Amino acid sequence: MKLFGNKRLLILLLGFICFIALMGLTLGKRERMTWPEKFITDTVSWTQGLFYKPAGYIAGFFEDIGKLHVIFEENKVLKQTLTKYARDTTKLNDLEQQNKRLKEALGFTERQKQAGQYTFRIAEVVALNPDLLNNTVRINLGEKDGIKPNMAVMSVEGLVGRVKQVSSFYSNVQLLKGIDDTNNESKAISVTVKGRENETFGMLESYSKEKQKLIMTKIDPNDKMEVGDVVITSGLGQVFPRGIEIGKVISRDPGNFGISHEAVIEPFASFDHLREVFVVIVPEQG
């Protein structure tokens, strides 16, 4: 009885298999399906849909994770490239500016050499105002380079100051805006007007921090100096060589007691953004 029951089950399964096979063979040849075929097709499709959608979501999730990793790596590379580009651009701009300054400096020294006057040693400013009270900057030339105290220091624009202290490889330069600082034993600068060197005389003795201008004193009331004139070193006093441009006259008024006049001078050189300067070396008189 048990064997017979197993035979009936076997026959039922074989019949179902044959039915499925027959349906598969005839499905492509007929446009219309019978209702059992429709039922089975719909049932299988619905069942597949239950598994396909979650599987699709999971596959899409891992695919998105993979894409995120790729995007992250690409973004990382782009950031590195952008950083390198910005760094290279900054470096290029700095080199272009330095090249421009050095070209101007070279042209300046060549013009002065052609005039047969003085020797110029170019130096880099390595510290801005290391001594704020004394209005000084530090340059990378010292005793080993032939630098001595009281040598004039200038930029391409004009006079900057004088060498104050010298070590073996560095020097401190006192700026013109500290000219009236008695703690620095500053000395007044003898000046004149460009083009009228034998007619005008005066002294630079102080710097107005309020106006950020130099003050020229001891001007003869009959002096023909006027607004717009260019003030230069006179060479008197044997400290600053003659002919270094300092600034432009922007005003002139009677001084104390009316004995002499005073003038306000706008410096040509900027004291706050110095990069390269020149130490003026005057040939020793034999």
Total number of beta strands: 12
Rg, Å, rounded = 45 Å
Looking at the structure, what is the overall shape?
elongated
N to C succession of SSEs: HHEEEEEEEEEEEE
Measure the end-to-end span: 142 Å
Strand order of the largest sheet: 1-2-5-4-3-12
Number of helices: 2
Short note summarizing the structure:
Residues 125-280 form the Rod shape-determining protein MreC beta-barrel core domain. The chain has 286 residues and is of the alpha+beta class.
Descriptive overview:
This protein is an alpha+beta fold and 286 residues long. It has 2 domains: 34-116; 117-281, Beta Barrel (Thrombin, subunit H), CATH 2.40.10. It contains 2 helices and 12 strands; from the N terminus they run H-H-E-E-E-E-E-E-E-E-E-E-E-E. The longest helix has 80 residues, at 35-114. Keywords: Cell shape, Coiled coil. InterPro entries: Cell/Rod_1, Cell/Rod_MreC_2, MreC, MreC_beta-barrel_core. Residues 125-280 form the Rod shape-determining protein MreC beta-barrel core domain.
Secondary structure blueprint with pairings:
Blueprint: H1 2-27, H2 35-114, E1 119-127, E2 136-139, E3 152-154, E4 159-166, E5 171-175, E6 189-193, E7 202-208, E8 213-219, E9 230-233, E10 245-254, E11 261-267, E12 276-281
Antiparallel strand pairs: 1-2, 1-12, 2-5, 3-4, 3-12, 4-5, 6-7, 6-9, 7-8, 8-11, 9-10, 10-11
Summarize this structure as a short list of keywords or feature phrases:
2 helices, 2 domains, 286 residues, single chain, alpha+beta
